[in-house]
Amino acid sequence: MLLILLKILVILDLIGILLAGLYILGMMCKRRPKGGFHAKLSERHYAHRGLHAIASGIPENSTRAFRLAANNHYGAELDVRLSHDGRLVVMHDESLKRTTGANAGVSAVTGQVINQLTLEGTREKVPFLEEVLPIFSGKAPLLIELKTENGNYEDLTRRVTNLLKQYPELDVMIESFDPRVLRWLRKHRPDVIRGQLACNFFREEDCALNPFLRFLLSNMLVNFLTRPDFVAYKYEDREDLAPTLCRRIWGPQFFWWVVKSQPEVNSLIEQGDVVIFEGFAAK
């Protein structure tokens, strides 16, 4: 009887070791290169949705917010979605309600409709990506988040990368919560720097993912398929097991979002991380 119990314990130990190994392998990333992660990109702070301040009449994801970021020597992070007719719309939410007041989704209306909308009670229009890229070309780096909807990851990613070919002087990276975007980039555009966006989805109240996908994406367990150049993880979740193990074992470049104070910026700089900030002028 004792021998049988010992055999069971050994088998359970082996299963545990196997599962732990698979867990670690699943989050495999590219290691941060010696001498810095594409120095031009990692030496900047990135203004989240531009250098916006609605109290001063500067909405998020507006051309004015992006010009302010570039003119103040910041990079910028922005969000891109596809309209119903395939326009590349710079907008965080799928719903247009919060920022424009229009009771419709980005993917449900045409670019012509979107072009008539203004942001947060200002005269600033909803920009298209082709209007934003020239602001940063040759001036400051850009971090583009692709927001997929209804399985449009391939169409969205292809349209964005085709547009980027027109701006060879632009220093740019693409990130997404959707690993299919990174998988497509790895296969078709391996020259584009790609990053996996992640957070602890179990803490996100409005998350529509089922528990299995929440676990998979919170722990970045498809990185072995996408091999991201960097990881962009939610700052509030920085002490979770997944980002902690990922940086210690695989050593990729880490971006943190959204950082909201200078002391936090200082601590991240000391460990070689990149800051995506909001609500103040990061130094």
Quick overview of this protein structure:
The protein is 37% helix and 16% strand. The protein has 283 residues and is an alpha/beta fold.
Shape annotation: globular
Q: Please provide the ordered H/E string of secondary-structure elements.
A: HHEHEEHHHEHEHEHHEHEHE
Classification by helices and strands = alpha/beta
Please name the fourth-level CATH homologous superfamily.
Phosphatidylinositol (PI) phosphodiesterase
Question: Separation of termini?
Answer: 66 Å
- Unreliable stretches, pLDDT < 50, 5 or more residues? none
Classified by CATH, the class is Alpha Beta
The biggest beta sheet is recorded as: 8 strands, parallel, barrel
Mean pLDDT: 94
Number of domains: 1
Mind telling me which CATH architecture this is?
Answer: Alpha-Beta Barrel
Physical arrangement of strands within the biggest beta sheet: 1-2-4-5-6-7-8-9
How big is the Rg?
A: 20 Å
